[in-house]
Amino acid sequence: MAKSKRDLFLKRRLRVRNKLRAVNAGRLRLSIHRSNKNISAQLIDDVQGVTLASASSLEADLGVVGKNNIEAAIKVGATIAERAKKAGVEEAYFDRGGFLYHGKVKALADAAREGGLKI
């Protein structure tokens, strides 16, 4: 039976996450989620099970609410890098989930790197 797009996405997300966890044990995870309208990022400590920092295009202070574009992703990436520094985090690994690494996902990662976060 043919698998749905959602099933394939979930399978790809788990495959990416499991490979990254095997290689980057003990490091923090920069996890992203992209919907049709927004993009968000979280800095997660999997050992303790807590989120240390987060940023989203839904936040009014970023000024990108309702904008589904690369500029919004760049602002979210810069914001997560700034909040990671405040939390004392300099290094994390990038968990793109099941999303392909291009467009908004790539823009967010590049902005986080420019903001000083090593991913």
Automatic annotation (TrEMBL):
Source domain of life = Bacteria
Keyword annotations for this protein, in alphabetical order, are: Ribonucleoprotein, Ribosomal protein, RNA-binding, rRNA-binding
Q: Which SUPFAM superfamilies match?
A: Translational machinery components (SSF53137)
Q: Which Gene3D superfamilies match?
A: 3.30.420.100
Ribosomal protein as UniProt keyword: yes
Cross-referenced InterPro entries, in alphabetical order?
Ribosomal_L18, Ribosomal_uL18_bac-type, Ribosomal_uL18_bac/plant/anim
Could you state one GO biological process linked to this protein?
translation
Q: Which GO terms describe its molecular function?
A: 5S rRNA binding; structural constituent of ribosome
Cross-referenced Pfam families: Ribosomal_L18p
Q: Which GO terms describe its cellular component?
A: cytosolic large ribosomal subunit
Function statement? This is one of the proteins that bind and probably mediate the attachment of the 5S RNA into the large ribosomal subunit, where it forms part of the central protuberance.
Family per similarity comment: Belongs to the universal ribosomal protein uL18 family.
Q: How does it assemble?
A: Part of the 50S ribosomal subunit; part of the 5S rRNA/L5/L18/L25 subcomplex. Contacts the 5S and 23S rRNAs.
* Protein name, UniProt field: Large ribosomal subunit protein uL18
Organism annotation:
Pseudooceanicola algae
